[in-house]
Amino acid sequence: MPTNRRQQIQRLILPVIAGGCLIFAISAVIKPGRTRADPPATPPTAAYASTVAGLGTVEPQSELIAVAAEMPGVIRSVLVQPGDRVAQGQPLFRLDARAAEAAVATAEAEAVSAQAAARQAEVALADARQRMSLFESVDDARALSSDELERSRFAVRRAEAAVAQARAVAQAARAQTRARAVDLERLTVAAPISGRIFRVDVRPGEYAPSGSTAQPLIAMGDDSRMHVRAEFDEADAARLRPGRPAYGTLRGQAESRIPLTLVRIEPQVVEKRALSGGSERVDTRVVEAIFSFDPIANPSYLGQRMDVFVEAAPSQTQAPTPTINRATAPAEASR
Predict the structure, then answer these.
(1) Mind listing the pLDDT tens digit for each residue in 83-136?
(2) What is the DSSP string of 179-245?
(3) What would the pLDDT profile of 157-167 be if each residue is shown by its tens digit?
(4) Which of 32, 204, 229, 270 has most Cβ atoms within 10 angstroms of its Cβ?
(5) Rounded CA gap, 145 and 151, in Å?
C-alpha cells in the first residue's frame, strides 16, 4: 500500500515540475515590448574641406556688464525687470536716501550761513577802508595823530584778511553741498549704457553692498549685435586668420547654420574654460576669437553654447621643396 501511494505522489509531482519549467521558458522567451529611445541630436558637421572648430558662448557685444552700487545701503525700489530695454542713464534701482537728503539740507544751510558771514566781512572791510580814507584826507597834522592813522590802516588789513577767510569758508561750504548732492545722486543706480536687462538679483528691503559682488545685482548688455566667444586649441592658432568664412550652430540645432563675422582674435593664450564633456582635458590652452551675428535673424539666449567652424587658412609650416639646377647637376654628380 505505501508503495502505491508513493507512486501516485511521484506521478503528481512530475507534471507539476514540467508545467513550472514550461511557464518559466515561455516567460523568458516572451519579453514585454521595450520603449524605443529617441535618437540623439544630430552632431554638427563642418562644411569646409579644412576646418578649425571651437566651442563658444553667446554674449552681448558689450560683454556682460555687472551693475553695482557705488554706495552701500538698503534698496528701496527696483525699477526694471529681466528683458527690459533701458537707455543710458535710466534709473535701475534706488537705495534709501533719507540720511543723504538730510545731509544735503544741512550742507545747504551751512553754505547759506557761510555766505552771510562773507557778506558781513565785506561790509566791515568797506567801513574800515572808508575810515582810513577819512583819516588820510585830513590836511592838518595836529587834528590826527600818526598812531590813529596807522591803526586805521591795520584795521583795513585785518578786514581784508577776514573777508578772504569768510569767502574761503563760503566756498568750502558750497563744495560740501555739491559733494552731499553727489552722494545723494549716487544712491540712484543708473544704466551705464543703452541695452537690455538680462538678470535682476535685487529686491526692495535687501542690503546692497558697494563695489563688485560674487553675484551681480543687475546684469545687462548691448544686444543690438550678439557675439560668441569661441575657444580654439592653441595648436590651431596659426590656421585661424581674419577674413576666413565662418559659421556656428547652436546646441541641438545642427541643421541651422548661423553666419559669423570675425571681430577680433584675443592676443593672449589662456586656459580652457568651456568644457564640452566630463572627460575633456582641463589643462588645455586656447586662443579666444570673438565673432558677431545678427540676433534678429538668429535668435539665441545669453550664455548658450555654440559650435563654431572656421575655414582654416593654408598651413605655412611645410618646408619648401628644393630646386635643382639641371645644368650643373651632372657636373656635380661626376665629381
Answers:
(1) 999 999 999 999 999 999 999 999 999 999 999 999 999 999 998 888 888 777
(2) HHHHHHHHTEEE-SSSEEEEEE---TT-EE-BS--SS-SEEEE--SSEEEEEEEEGGGGGG--TT--
(3) 999 999 999 99
(4) 229
(5) 10
- Give the residue from 237, 190, 226, 220 showing the smallest Cα distance to 94: 190
Q: Which residue has the higher pLDDT, 282 or 314?
A: 314
Residue labelled with grid coordinates 546646441: 251
**The domain 51-61+220-311 belongs to what CATH superfamily?**
Efflux pump adaptor protein, beta barrel domain (2.40.30.170)
Helix, coil or strand: residue 6: helix
What angle is formed at CA 77 by the lines to CA 88 and CA 193, rounded to 5 degrees?
Answer: 10
Which residue in the block uniquely carries the three cell numbers 511557464? 23
Given this model, what pLDDT does residue 295 score?
A: 93
* CA–CA distance, 72 with 97 (Å, rounded to integer): 11
Domain edges within the chain? 51-61+220-311, 96-187
The alpha carbon dihedral of 22, 24, 29, 33 has a sign of: positive
Name the nearest CA neighbour of 311 among 48, 55, 45. Answer: 48
